Amino acid sequence: MEKHTDPRNHATCVAKNGLLKFDYVVRVLRTFCRYFMKHIGWDETHFGKMGSYYINRTFFFDVHPPLGKMLIGLAGYMTGYDGTYPFLKPGDRYEHHNYWGMRGFCASLGSCLPPFAYLTVLELSQSPTAALITAAVLAFDTGCITISQYILLDPILMFFIMGAVLSMVKFNRQRYRPFSTPWWFWLVLTGVNLSGALGVKFVGLFVILLVGMNTAWDLWSLLGDLHLSLIDFGKHVLSRVFGLILLPLFLYVTIFAVHFVVLNKSGPGDGFFSSAFQSRLIGNNLHNASMPEYLAYGSIITVKNLRIAGGYLHSHWHLYPEGVGAKQQQVTAYLHKDYNNMWLVHRSNDSDAQSGEPDLVRHGDIIQLEHKETTRNLHSHLHEAPLTKKHFQVTGYGINGTGDPNDLWQVEVCGGRKGDLVKVLRSKVRFLHRATGCVLYSSGKTLPKWGWEQVEITCSPYLKETPNSQWNIEDHINTKLPNISLSVLKPHFLEILLESHIVMIRGNSGLKPKDNEMNSKPWHWPINYQGLRFSGVNETEYRVYLLGNPVIWWLNLVSLGLYVVMVAVASLALRRGVQLDKRRIEHCRVLMEGGGLLLLGWLLHYVPFYTMGRILYYHHYFPAMLFSSMLTGITLDTLLQSADLWLRPPYSDWLLRGGQAMLFLAILDSFYMFHPLSYGMRGPLAHDPDSTMAGLKWMDSWEF
Amino acid sequence: MLASSSWLHFVQTLGHPRLLFDSMLTSIKLPIVIRAEINLVLVVVTALGLLSRLYGINFPKAVVFDEVYYGQFVSLYTKQVFFIDESGPPLGHMILAFGAYLGGFDGNFIWNRIGAEYSSNVPVWSLRLIPALAGSLCVPLCYLLVVELGYSHLTALGAALLFLMENSLIVQSRFMLLESVLIFFLLLAVVSYLRFHNAQSGSPVRLAWLVLTGVTCACAVGVKYMGLFTYFLLLGLAAVHTWQLIGDRALSNGVVLMQVVTRFLALVVLPLLLYLGFFYVHLNLLYRSGPHDQMMSSAFQASLEGGLARITQGQPLEVAYGSQVTLRSVSSKPIPCWLHSHKANYPIRYENGRGSSHQQQVTCYPFKDVNNWWIIKDPGRFVQDLVVSSPPRPVRHGDVVQLLHGMTSRLLNTHDVAAPMSPHAQEVSGYIDFNVSMPAQNLWKVDIANREAEQDVWKTILSEVRLIHINTSAVLKLSGSSLPEWGYRQLEVVGDKIYKGYQPSGVWNVEEHRYGRSLEQRERELELHSPTHIDINRNLTFIAKFLELQWKMLTVKHEDSEHKYSSSPLEWITMNTNIAYWLHPASNAQIHLIGNFVTWTLANLALAVYVLLFLSYLLRRRRKIEDIPEATWCQLLQAGVVCAGGWAVNYLPFFMMEKTLFLYHYLPALTFQILLIPVVLEHLHTHMLRWAPMTRLGLWIESGHRRSRTFAQGRKRLREPFQRKALLKTCFVECITLILLVSTSTWDQRTLGPETV
């Protein structure tokens, strides 16, 4: 046993040195230039702004879970940023605002990636060279550097992903010392990192899958171990359930709880949420509001679609343009609160008996809805809707409440019976058009410029029950009825949690690519086909361009292919029972187990993007790129170590050393060539021979 | 011999009793004795299948549901007119068209409405014959599949009967639809693979089964892309089996290599070749131009007879200075169009207050028009000099040219003025000198994107060209938005300064082309109006055509349409949906696609039981507790891979699809799920409980069947189209075998066999 530990100690020693060296280099690289760029780069507009929202405690909506932005906000708060900078558009200057804390926070998380990768690969392969290759690849990749320099979610996300992988690998090493302190420590740390990853972006789900598969495999082998009693096995299962499911879930829910507690003021995100949700927010008109409980004739109301982020039924003094159905007044859905969302409820026969008690509207009643501002009635007819051609157009028609039979709508409470009253905020209502039998519907499609880019409203002949055709009454003003307090409506925490998730998921899948834009496709990514412009377009501007170091990325790609070939050869050799010496068998094991885990990680973080309908960007590949780089380390190291397969000893050793030296030189040299991509370029674009980047535009599709 | 005799059983069931040669031809001895073995059960099952699927298939004599869709393609096939159908590869249409060919259909029918009466020239019977035959042959295939999985003949009979009486499958088989053909190929592929796997190694029949697997897999994929799922499942199964083979150290390396290569050739290479073959036949059969020409590139269109070929035939190949050309945008999004200009200027101010150059509009116009003609001009020459010299001076990659609009004599120009709809890009105009210090910037560099050599000549149709503006290095590009009223709603053309890589919207090709001969503008206008003619022929290779067609099929997006009967995958398991296939316009006779409730429930139950059984066995075996013998476990595992796996691969992917889905998409998955019922029952019977003999199942189904028939007759008075939900709620009857709910009048006239009720 002594002999075994010795080389390992040596390896760890070398490893520690290498790690320290790398950590230093990386930190210098990452922090080197983040003070230089004094203006907003790319998505900093979003995430910086959201950080400010946390500091100002105003409610907003984003498609990602809140942890990343919360941490950004916290970093800003701790370093004295006051949350007043508006973050309007990329390229704006920060002036006197204290933004460095937020950037520094992201950069320092980003600089943890190479050391984490180093340790992970070292654990998997026990080879410091492999670990060093990985760390060099990540440290000198211009893409990783650029993406870590700004106020973005990606460095935070990648930090948690790498953290989870590292602690998972460490945990696997503790296999023979179950329930010891380090065993528990790494288990809990894995769980914490998982919740962190998921709390930043839903991409964290992929790493959860990876850890889940690893755990399932682990448990499977434990189950096969007949020395282990079922009770002990049960303990193993339960501890993993605690560490990898319950704990992360608890932390994840806690993140949301903090999110909701911190953001208690009404803000730009209100309209995306249901009426009940809004009643929680200070400053929202539903907060501590009171209004009549049941819908009555003569009331002034706003009607909100139940589709998440559905918008209010809206109309305004503009007509549908020529060629879009009848040239009558537009009716749309509008996400923001506006006086044009107000509608007046009329009885169908229009003999408004205004005297005495106001009548309540019941299920099955036939009503007219008059637009308060323009006095037109909500109207539909057999013209096709502007965007959804199979539906009918909805317009505002008539004047001062007089119209025609096409203005009649039947109120239907979902799940109600004839005679049921319509509850404000709580009832789901459908409006059936009397004349055509269609149902008032919000398609969710955005109208072109003539419709002020508001959302289309149609009348759908398909009577399926969908939230698109269900509405609720939000504001309700009727002086003749007694008001009740709506604080009873305040939703439960779990309801809020559920709703915000639905809104996020809808929002995510709603980010559809536009047809005529050049979209990034998943196959572009591994070949480094096209980068992302972080700031600056013109020759005069200071430009930063997110693009992976092509030498490194193509090396990664080649290594992937090499890995598949090597693993195929190795497993065939084992399967056919070829005699191998001990060292070779160890290589095969590293390739198949360590490499397999990393390949699985790469696949899990890459392949699902092919099935996604949402809009994709280049930076979505970075988590997968981490795995691919780690795999590169293991593959190239094993390849060079196996040089003695085809060369005799002295030469094979030379090949090994020479290959390693070449590799590091190539990485360093390419970093030197491409470093202006991350640290900023000025002057002419690369196709100009005078440019600093002249001759480096190796692919036509790169735009620097 | 076992394999070949069962195969014969199957062939006999097709109605062609063939005989098994007891002795091979090589060892002929007199007297020659022929012995025939007939599996009567199989014959009966096949006969029942034929009866249920074929009886009265020419009723109704009207377009039923998706026949309206497939019918168009059948018509186009019979007329040999080219079309694109993005829903699947061409084999399915070919098979349907073969039916039309047998019936002598001339293709003259307008497929526009479900329920339209067929005219007398439509051979309804033969159109529906092939799907019905395929559907009926699935019944014996189910039987064979279960036998091949190693279960008893009684179990196999159960499977065949369950499949036979699944009314959704009956409905789907009885009309001109493709699902039954697909299911037929899927089942045949699985059966032949299992035959191959079970056969003794070394026999030549074994190889034949392997080849048949490859062929049927190709056919399944050729009918619908959905076939890919089962194909991949079989490939996975074959990979596992091959891996076991590799692990067999008793075999020599040579033998293993041979086996692996054979399997690879038969299961991967052969299907690929066949798939290409389908397209080869497809492209050879459809040689006439048709309704979908516009979606294809000019080169493709030129290879079709009629259409563009009529115009382009005989055009000069090399574009020269003085050539008169039309330029088509290579991108066909949003629609294919040609570079166009007309006598109208950009408005001085747009609606949003931005200014324009007020020069002549340049647009992209989706119709053929005399205003689409441009003349290639050498910048060094005068405007008057617009004829092609002899010999013609061809334009090469990298040359700088000017483009003169034929009818208005304006030069194509772009400058640093924001484009009307896409303000980030430059406006493109026909230059008019207003004397407002806005100089002409009308030089364009020709950049041939698909050049083979640096000095390549610009070729008509074949060359894809980028026009790069000299002063601003902007690229002439279709922006994709359309102009408002003042631009006649034509498409906007811009100069894009930030041009990324290869974008089809920035690439153009010359479509119509002739050498200009006229010196005078008036003459030239006459010339532009006249058709082109000089003779040169060119053809695309098959592979080029295949790649283009395949790419178009995979990328064409048709609008996400909502359909009254569309459903979500979750609704399929619970059969919470149906489709009204046909409704008699006068009487209330209807045909619905709806499943057999008993089968559906049993299949779901069987799946659940199977998963439970599998998991418990698996975990217990891991702890070395063996409840069942190894062989039974392997058998159960294989049945699970085929049946439960077949269900999963044919069902789960639908959750990720964004297209409009219908109940019939579930049928392939259902087929595999049904096969699981008897398998699970037999397992339970022999290994767990020893109850419920298989015959009882048969009796139960039969009784359910009888009851539903009375139910159907009971509903005769129903006048309203029935509501599925109400049906499920009110009728506790387990078996809703209600396919043809025919109102009194038609019921009396058309006596339908009990199987079709």
How is this structure best described in words?
The complex is a heterodimer of chains A (704) and B (757). With 704 residues, chain A is of the alpha+beta class. In chain A, 45% of the residues lie in helices and 13% in strands. Chain A has 17 helices and 16 strands. Chain A has a 6-stranded antiparallel β-sheet, with no helix packed on it. In chain A, helix 6 runs antiparallel to helix 16 and helix 9 packs antiparallel against helix 10. Chain A is elongated. The N terminus of chain A is likely disordered. Chain B is an alpha+beta fold and 757 residues long. Helix content of chain B is 44%, strand content 12%. Chain B has a 6-stranded antiparallel β-sheet with strand order 11-10-7-6-3-14, with no helix packed on it. In chain B, strands 4, 5, 8, 9, 12 and 13 form a 6-stranded antiparallel β-sheet that branches. A 3-stranded antiparallel β-sheet of chain B has the order 15-16-17. In chain B, strand 12 and strand 13 form a beta hairpin. In chain B, helix 5 packs across helix 7, helix 6 packs antiparallel against helix 19 and helix 8 runs parallel beside helix 10. Chain B is elongated. The relative contact order of chain B is 0.10. The N terminus and C terminus of chain B are likely disordered. The chains are: A alpha+beta (704), B alpha+beta (757). At the A-B interface, helix 10 of A face helix 10 and strand 12 of B.
